[in-house]
Design brief:
Elements lengths: L29 H5 L4 H4 L3 H14 L7
Length: 66
C-alpha cells in the first residue's frame, strides 16, 4: 500500500489465513517489521490478538474514533 494503510482497511498483503505475504521481505513496511509480538498483544488465542490489533488500528486512525 504505497500511501500507507488506513486504519480499518485490511492490508493487501494479508493472506486468507491472516499471515503476512511479505513477512521477512525487504519491502515489508518498517512499522510492521517493528511490531514485535508479545503476550500483551497475542494473549491466549487468535481472537484476542485480532481484537488487540483492531484496538491499535482504532487508536492510530486519523480521526481516532473509528
Amino acid at each position: 500500500m504505497p500511501l500507507g494503510k488506513p486504519a480499518g482497511v485490511r492490508c493487501v498483503q494479508l493472506l486468507e489465513d491472516n499471515r503476512c505475504a511479505i513477512f521477512g521481505q525487504p519491502e515489508r513496511p518498517a512499522f510492521c517489521a517493528g511490531l514485535k509480538p508479545d503476550i500483551e498483544m497475542c494473549g491466549p488465542d487468535q481472537t484476542y490478538a485480532l481484537r488487540w490489533l483492531g484496538d491499535l488500528e482504532r487508536a492510530t486512525s486519523v480521526s481516532g474514533s473509528n
